[in-house]
Amino acid sequence: MFDILALIPGKKRQASNGWYSFNAICCHHNGGHRPDTRFRGGIKTNGPNEWLMHCFNCNFTCSFRLGKPLEFKTKKLLNWLGVDDIQIQRWNLESLQYKDLLDFYTPTKPNLIRFVEKQLPEGELLDKTNPTHKEYVDYLINRCIDIDSYPFMVTPNDVGRNKHRVIVPYTYKNKIVGHTSRYLDNKTPRFINDQQSGYVFNIDVQHNDWSVCILTEGIFDALSIDGVALMHDDISDEQSKLLASLNKQIILVPDRDTSGLKLTDKALEFGYSVSLPKWETDIKDVNDAVIRYGKVPTLLSILQSATNSKIKIEMRKRQIAKGL
Description:
Blueprint: H1 4-7, E1 13-14, E2 19-22, H2 27-30, E3 41-45, E4 50-55, E5 61-65, H3 72-80, H4 85-105, E6 124-125, H5 134-142, E7 153-154, E8 165-172, E9 175-183, E10 191-194, E11 212-216, H6 219-225, E12 228-229, H7 237-244, E13 249-252, H8 258-269, E14 273-275, H9 286-293, H10 295-305, E15 306-307, H11 310-322
Parallel strand pairs: 11-12, 11-13, 13-14
Antiparallel strand pairs: 1-2, 2-3, 3-4, 4-5, 6-7, 7-8, 8-9, 9-10, 14-15
Helix pairs in contact: 6-9, 8-11, 9-10
């Protein structure tokens, strides 16, 4: 098909998580926006024939997946990049022809949960070299989060609480399906989420060759160990179906509080393993452990403590509960 990165003019910066940032070409085409000069465009690729594009300035979003027809906004982006309509139509036809072949050779599978594509708030892609982003960079570093591991957004030009927040986009199959805002002003609520039913955070980042998926409650717990997050203290049936689609051993590491310990019962019902490592009593969740011990020692302790034994889990829960 076509290499979207080769079509984009100018310099591109690659992050470790597969996202490329560049000067977005869409802003001045959408009206009301100046041409981007701050690398606010972002593209995440999943192999040569699948990608998601999002502009963190004008909020333009489009995507492509081989076997699917080219969407209207994808065609607009290609036009802006100088591709003529005839070539776009050829690529659209090639993609549909691939779908016909795929349908012929691939057995039918039941549809998984579908999520509605959503827009993110207008903001800037986090840039550790930008002095106005220091507040957000310091916050993530203090939580031992790799800044280059995820396309965090910030809104330093907003007013009120929104000036002091880190926005974490939610993606599923390379589409934006929601987000959370983590406010840094020590007021409540600390998080405001736009989460669709059944969604599991960070599921797109799970590699096919990983045999284990570590399941946590909080977003920053997941980000600190490359795991996934429920974003609440329960596991819905929809979330369990999404997790089952990974075909991995699921290891729940709950928060060290009453609701977190109760969550272990639900995990066992779904056939998950549970890990309750012997961390110090003031460690309340996975992110606390990463801050105290580091990422690799925390991961090792989680894997070594994982078990399906209800008796062992109940014994550890009682030990932890004594310290609450």
